[in-house]
Amino acid sequence: MNEHLIKNEAATFIAKVASLSMRDAGIDIDDELVVDRSLEAKH
After folding, report:
1. CA quadruple 43, 16, 18, 27: dihedral positive or negative?
2. pLDDT tens profile 3-41
3. Whole-angstrom Cα distance, residue 15 to residue 1?
4. How many whole angstroms separate alpha carbon 16 and alpha carbon 29?
5. Cα dist. 43→7, 24, 31 in Å?
């Protein structure tokens, strides 16, 4: 699974969600997000 989710290991971390601010996007409390700091955010 790591090979599919993590492309840049040095820039990647897991963040645990602690608020309801993204609930409308389907992201809820205690969800875990894979974050790659090397990627530019897309809107």
Report:
1. positive
2. 888 999 999 999 999 999 999 999 999 999 999 999 998
3. 17
4. 8
5. 21, 16, 21
Query: CA angle, corner 16, sides to 38 and 31, nearest 5?
Result: 110
CA atoms within 13 A on the CB side of 33: 14
**Whole-angstrom distance, CA of residue 25 vs CA of residue 2:** 24
Contact yes or no for 38/19 (Cβ under 8 A): no
Query: Positive or negative CA dihedral for 20, 25, 28, 34?
Result: negative
Q: What does pTM read for this prediction?
A: 0.75
